[in-house]
Structure formats: structure tokens, C-alpha cells
Amino acid sequence: MSNVLTVVTARGHSRELPRKNILPLLGKPLIAWTIECARQAQSVDTLIISSDDSEIISVAESYGCQAPFVRPAELATDEASSIDVILHALDVMKGSFEYVILLQPTSPLRLPQDIDACMALCRDGGADSAVSVCAAGKPLHWMFEIGTSGEMSRVLELPDFGGPRQQHVQPFVLNGAVYVARVEWLRKNRSFVGPHTRAHVMPRERSIDIDSKADFLVAEALLRLQRGA
Hints:
Layout: E1 4-9, E2 24-25, E3 28-29, H1 30-40, E4 46-50, H2 54-62, H3 82-93, E5 99-103, H4 112-123, E6 129-135, E7 144-146, E8 152-154, E9 172-182, H5 183-189, E10 198-201, H6 213-226
Parallel strand pairs: 1-4, 1-5, 6-10
Antiparallel strand pairs: 2-3, 5-9, 6-9, 7-8
């Protein structure tokens, strides 16, 4: 019996880029890249779509993703959290799942190996959760907040502001590509990130998270480069 539930989350409304989850990207809908990637990952067995949109559900099914339910409208708003969406999927499926994987269609450049690496950190490495990250573009020393009058203040008070960039602390950020957690732990903590979460580092060129038209064009260009076009 499957003990891993993989959920692709895709609501119909998107503010900055309308209908982005099914926009054609190099000949196939954006969501198809994530579904095809998941189906190639060794750690993915039960793969479902959580969506409120009939067209998205139809597209997902056409690429081999199960659609056992329609997401309630109250979980498809801008205010709805990903955790609530995942917990709803777990409740509806009613299986004895030990792990859950969250995949967002907005990360079309992830590879099956990225999914499997995050799962391995949990299943083989003993972590309660694992997430994909990438190196931030700039060091923490270079990050500032700007006040209402335009004045600058450093986000964090760190020593040794000067010196070569290579000597600065390298921060990492969530890239949105892969989230994995033990179901029992996730229900208790209501977050994929906790004190002992493990990180799977992905290169920045595969960490694009599509939110705008510019992001979409960048993803398209990167995919063309990957294909040698």
C-alpha cells in the first residue's frame, strides 16, 4: 500500500498572471511539467491534483494525475494557506499515509531527482521534513529595509560588513519546488519548516518560481537552454 501522498496544488485564480497553471510552456501546459516530473520520481506513487478549477483538473487528468475531489472554494482564496490545502487533501484521501509531498506547478525546472532527494532526507536521513532551497542572490550583509522617509536600515545586524563578498555568510531561500514531511509531524506543526528541517540545495537556474509574466519568460528561456535549442 502506498504510504506517500503527493499533492500538486493549482487553483484557478492567479492574481499577477491569469490562468498561469495551464498557460502553454514550450508546447504543454505549465502544470504538465510538474506532473510529468512527479511521475518520473521513484518516491512518488499516489499523485493527485488539488484544484477548484474544472479546466485545470481536466488538464491534470489528461497527463496522468488523479483528481479524487474538487477543492472547496474557501481553500482557493488568496488568504488560504498551503498547509490547510494539504491537510484537506489528507483528510479527504483517508489513507494511512506516512509522508506527504507538496509540488507547485510554478516550479517547472525541478527534476525527479530533486523530489527523490528530499524524500531521502526524510525516509533515509530521519528528518521530519525536507525542503528544496537555493542560494540567495546577495549576502545578508547587503540586505536593507527602507523606512517611510527613505532611510535605510540593515535587515540583520551582522559583524564585518566590509570585506570580499566570498567571506560573507551565504543565505539560502526556499525556492518552492519541493516540500516533504511526515504526516503526523505536519499535522502537529502545521508547517513544512521547523527547527530540524533538512535542506536540499538546487541550483538557482532550476529554482525559478513563476509568479509573473517575466518569470514565465525566464523559465521558457531556461528550458530552451536545457534542451539545447
